[in-house]
């Protein structure tokens, strides 16, 4: 019997095997389906906390779901569907116990454009496509792309979004007729044009809603879940204030209808009751007389195809981090969960969803322990959709707009503006430009403008490394020392060439030392230009030395031009003892 | 009489005045119209040299002008017009005495797409628009943008352009019928499909042209302008080899016609004689039955709108630098000259032009002294256009394609591939990707792909600064030292946060020192994340110190969060004497 030689499998095969083994391990399964980790460890003692948190979140999710569907221009039930399906999916796939997902003001505002100009089908397709993109980015580990959106850009974008949403709600707030407008500028224009159609009851109720929300917030201050009964009640009412003001609004509408024998307020009206029906997302739609194929719909989405998923990821990951309390956030898993919530949600006519800051904060304050809190929220939503839609008929639009406008106050970040004013006017300018483009051309163009401007400025800075040449006089001769920075890339090559040539313009009898002590990286273009500089200075009969270049970079230069090898010198005493240095070389 | 107080004009007014004074000075005028500098200093002794250089350049400009018009798919006279008008303009505005402008192979290849798919009018409009963009970039000092095109990208692009041009000429080279193809892949496909239609005389003449060019080049080796008569003649013939082979080709064609009583070779045919008529560039055109408005034409240009001017600037500035012999090149002035050459040229039906490497090298070798050499060239071109067009009728297309193909050999840079293979495989990959996209999708997409990939990789590198944490044990306690790099921008913020958190994951009883000694710049996003890290580590009861941050950066951090002020410490002995350091803080 011949013994087969023990051949090592190729490294490539090994790697594939390792990846496969890693992908199929129990640990990975638990990471990708976090419910397998926390559910078996669930203790009965957690339940009351999860239950109460679920109630407070649910009592906010219902009015916010309706409100953000209204912001998007959709029938209100789409907001409730979105909260419902995403709530169920996140229980299984979510890795952060206190994060709550659902429709948010910003995503709703970004969807509104498609709905008002085309049809509601676009909102559902946007959810589906965004979900696919987010899932894909999660699987391909492309989450790092959001790191290229700086805080000034996010802040300018968020503030503009808040202003745009608030402006779009002013119409319902004062009971005007006419369209609400796609952009901030358009909304303000419509407001001015239709100002004469302002009603009486609407602004009163809207303002009363805002004031009530402020008072109810005050009511809960200093109260905790663990306090005595009275304080507990105050705490609970305060946290459920969104539901409270809507109930008050509905009651007012109902009483007015009975006493005046007609309804003076504009109501939200019929809401499609029952649970969402599951079917394929709309891959084609009809707007007016025109049929839009899938390709046409994607064309309409345009830049939204990339921007909406990015914004969803920023919101969700930022929230997860903010409430992680120092723990590391598995951004990949959050993106997978978010992607699946949107994809599966779109099969149940859901609008785009992401992490909600308000509801996550509420969940956290209510002392949630596991994602099971989400189940209570889901049950509340099911009750609302199956039994309460006829009651929701009486929700006055003015109450909703009051609710939305007051939520927008907290989205505007004044502090960052002050801090940037004091520390970095350039970054403040980026914030303002981002915000202005958002307000004047639309949210997605604003954020793209911000990202591109910031990246261009960064590239420009990388292309202009600061070189401070030192001129050292010594008895053995003069030295011009040009210390290079850590990293020189192709775009800085010409700048360095220009600087060295300029610094040595009127010199003679001087040794020019290009100091590569700190230099760690240099690409081919940069190295070629450096070689060119040396040769040009040689032509002018100036002596050039390349000091302390590491071996890889020296080899690169020598490979570009053999004749440059003799220029490389090593030593440390050039600045301290120029004479000794000059003698040594 | 009251004396008016001597009020300082506002700094803004001062600045405007200064700029105005600077703009209107004689020095600026001379810089912007360089002929005012060199013409008054012209010495009669310069004339013979300028004259001879003009002759050699002109003898190449004529065949190359015709050849590159053919590459662009234009009637041959457009190439001659382009050489003529740009030659005149450059005498006035050019700042580099030896640079020669005119049609080039690459610009011709980039124009070909518009001409073959639409009409010749597009080539003239492209020249006009490119001229405007180049002039605008010159005035706005945006020339630095070409610094973002690295050598691997340029090399991949140039090589692909050479292959594409050579492939498009293979058809004429072997006398095939059928179209020559928009892209490399298409040209090769057409060649294979139509291979059976190959003729006899064409490939022989084409090959003979290439061999003649090689031999004529050899003939001039070792000969200089200043040598004896025989060597001088050899030198002159060698430099005029492009004209020589075309004359040989014409003679062959003429003799064949007379001896065979029909013409077996495909000839260039009728050339529109006379000087160009000056009129507005075509702002609308008719292709087939369809009228293209200016807007439609701009739409057709698409990315060419930016890419063509960029390529023109790269070619021109690179050539100016290569032949400046160490002198600084006024890139702004070169761009202004180039822009004007294209704009004014387009009024005389000229195709797009830029600096020509071949003819500039020829000019240099011929010992040109001032831009006046260009005048001789222009006179030769005028003679050609007014008296020789009937002779040019006999230029065989095979001779032209042989001329073009042999010019392409020198455009392919093998050496850079070897050097990148040895030193930087990543940059070689960029070269290959650029080249492949050029060959498969078109030249402009290839160069854009290269620029974008390179910029994305650069941004990615900037977002991942190398942080090497040092763990130092000492009797007073352990230290984890994380030295920050010189520059931390928003996109690196998250990476640094992650690194610090990861390094300190399983530590306890350790002082974490975030070492900002080398740190020079940090933006708001990076500072905010750093503050966040410190607060997160605080929550884990790890002691954190921020070492040697400069005052501006310290103030920024403290402004973000007051409580962080106590974390800042200063000292230099942390690595050398950790005990002393720990005692001191």
Description of the molecule:
Two copies of one chain form a homodimer. The first copy, chain A, contains 25 helices and eleven strands. The first copy, chain A, has helices at residues 11-24, 26-32, 35-38, 46-71, 77-93, 105-117, 120-139, 151-174, 184-193, 201-219, 229-239, 241-260, 294-301, 304-322, 331-347, 357-365, 373-392, 397-409, 414-423, 425-441, 443-462, 490-503, 524-539, 551-560, 578-584; strands at residues 101-102, 285-287, 290-292, 354-355, 470-472, 478-483, 487-488, 510-515, 521-522, 543-547, 568-569. In chain A, β2 (285-287) and β3 (290-292) form a beta hairpin. In chain A, the strands form four sheets. In chain A, strands 5-6-8-10-11 form a five-stranded mixed beta sheet, covered by helices on one side. A two-stranded antiparallel sheet of chain A has the order 1-4. In chain A, strands 2-3 form a two-stranded antiparallel sheet. Chain A is α/β, with parallel strands linked by helices and 585 residues long. Chain A folds into three domains: 47-270 and 286-409, no CATH class; 416-463; 470-584, STAS domain (Transcription Regulator spoIIAA, 2-Layer Sandwich), CATH 3.30.750. The interface between A and B is large, with 49 and 49 residues.
């Amino acid at each position: 019997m011949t013994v087969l030689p023990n051949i090592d499998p190729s490294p490539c095969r090994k790697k594939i095997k390792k990846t496969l083994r890693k992908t199929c391990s129990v640990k990975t399964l638990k990471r990708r389906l976090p419910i397998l980790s926390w559910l078996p460890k669930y203790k009965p003692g957690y339940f009351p906390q999860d239950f109460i948190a679920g109630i407070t979140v649910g009592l906010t999710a219902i009015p916010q779901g309706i409100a953000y569907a209204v912001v998007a221009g959709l029938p209100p039930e789409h907001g409730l569907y979105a909260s419902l399906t995403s709530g169920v999916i996140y229980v299984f796939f979510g890795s952060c116990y206190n994060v709550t997902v659902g429709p948010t003001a910003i995503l709703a505002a970004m969807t509104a454009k498609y709905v008002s100009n085309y049809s509601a089908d676009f909102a559902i397709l946007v959810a589906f496509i965004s979900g696919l993109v987010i899932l894909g980015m999660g699987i391909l580990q492309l989450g790092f792309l959001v790191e290229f959106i700086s805080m000034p850009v996010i802040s300018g974008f968020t503030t503009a979004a808040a202003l745009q949403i608030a402006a779009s709600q002013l119409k319902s707030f004062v009971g005007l007729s006419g369209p609400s407008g796609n952009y901030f500028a358009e909304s303000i224009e419509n407001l001015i044009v239709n100002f004469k159609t302002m009603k009486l009851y609407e602004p009163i109720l809207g303002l009363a809603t805002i004031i009530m929300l402020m008072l109810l917030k005050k009511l809960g201050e200093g109260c905790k879940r663990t306090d005595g009964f009275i304080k507990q009640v105050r705490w609970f009412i305060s946290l459920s204030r969104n539901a409270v003001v809507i109930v008050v609004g509905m009651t007012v509408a109902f009483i007015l209808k009975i006493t005046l024998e007609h309804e003076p307020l504009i109501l939200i009206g019929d809401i499609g009751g029952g649970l969402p029906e599951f079917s394929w997302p709309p891959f084609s739609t009809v707007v007016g007389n025109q049929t839009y194929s899938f390709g046409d719909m994607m064309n309409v989405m345009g830049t939204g195809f990339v921007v909406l998923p990015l914004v969803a990821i920023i919101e969700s990951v930022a929230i997860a981090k903010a409430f992680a309390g120092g723990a590391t956030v598995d951004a990949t898993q959050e993106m997978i969960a978010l992607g699946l919530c949107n994809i599966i949600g779109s099969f149940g006519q859901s609008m785009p969803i992401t992490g909600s800051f308000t509801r996550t904060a509420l969940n956290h304050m209510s002392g949630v322990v596991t994602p099971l809190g989400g189940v209570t929220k889901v049950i509340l939503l099911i009750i609302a959709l199956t039994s309460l839609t006829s009651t929701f008929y009486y929700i006055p639009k003015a109450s909703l707009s009051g609710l939305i406008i007051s939520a927008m106050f907290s989205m505007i970040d004044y502090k960052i503006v002050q801090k940037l004013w004091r520390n970095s006017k350039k970054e403040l300018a980026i914030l303002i430009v981002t915000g202005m483009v958002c307000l004047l051309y639309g949210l997605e163009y604003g954020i793209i403008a911000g990202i591109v401007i910031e990246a261009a400025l960064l590239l420009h800075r990388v292309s202009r490394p600061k070189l401070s040449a030192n001129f050292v006089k010594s008895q053995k001769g003069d030295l011009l020392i040009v210390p290079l920075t850590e990293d020189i890339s192709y775009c800085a090559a010409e700048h360095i060439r220009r600087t060295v040539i300029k610094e040595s313009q009127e010199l003679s009898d001087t040794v020019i030392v290009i100091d590569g002590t700190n230099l760690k990286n240099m690409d081919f273009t940069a190295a070629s230009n450096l070689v060119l500089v040396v040769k040009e200075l040689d032509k002018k009969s100036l002596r050039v030395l390349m000091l302390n270049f590491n071996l890889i970079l020296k080899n690169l230069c020598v490979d570009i031009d053999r004749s440059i090898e003799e220029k490389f010198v090593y030593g440390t005493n050039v600045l301290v003892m120029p004479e000794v240095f000059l003698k040594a070389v």
